[in-house]
């Protein structure tokens, strides 16, 4: 489940949040990011929390892929709904037993804010989660991670079109660089699936729109990833429950006995722990450090998919993805966050 707070400008959306969201979906349960969040007080160092975050992020994606393609539990809408329900309960337990959600005291939630901000962003969040998870039914983990590099480009393009940010030549060159790298990556994909490509492209569009919508509707609010999840998880779970009968029906419920409660509980627990780790993550590292950590995590994930799931990665894909990653790091070092 994406993970860091954005700042005053849309160019300041953290790249690791854009890509994970991931992570969540992601695949993982992507943590909804809002405008500038105060860094949580943490005694943990970056050297301690970043490896934990990376391990959890990789584990969520590999675990979900194992469910979909190894255990043949091909019900992404149900799985996302289950993750969100678990997160909704988990955040409320943490609110009553820890200080991790003290940020909810700074949020003045009312009916008007819910209808005008939380609900529309929740709809985009649900779409992003469902589509990004559905893509794993058609595409390899490695290729999906490569396509996610385009999310930064989508955020910039939408922000330029909506005129909440002004285009400039340097960012335009970086957009072209990342786009070129992703295009080469797609050309080199050995098991290209057009439907899966369009599903992942739509997921990127939903996620980018969500991030821009957060900047427009929640500008100036202070929410860390876990506080955001506290408000969005129950909304998105209800939205998904509405769509579940029309997409997967009762089929996933018939499969629960075969999958077993242990797998479902452990899968949702890992996804939720990823969001908890995100709270500490945003407080221990600079934007560039977190960007590089996200890049390294994606490289490990691609390598893991090759070793564990025999995913095929061509030399042309490696070349294209290297260009896209270089563009992402360049984006960060030239002022984007």
TrEMBL record:
Annotated Sugar phosphate transporter domain residues: 47-331
Keyword Heme in annotation: no
Transmembrane segments: 44-63, 75-94, 114-131, 137-159, 171-188, 194-217, 229-247, 315-331
GO cellular component: membrane
Membrane topology: Multi-pass membrane protein
Keywords, sorted A to Z: Membrane, Transmembrane, Transmembrane helix
Annotated localization: Membrane
Superkingdom of origin: Eukaryota
Protein name per UniProt: TPT-domain-containing protein
Species of provenance: Mycena maculata
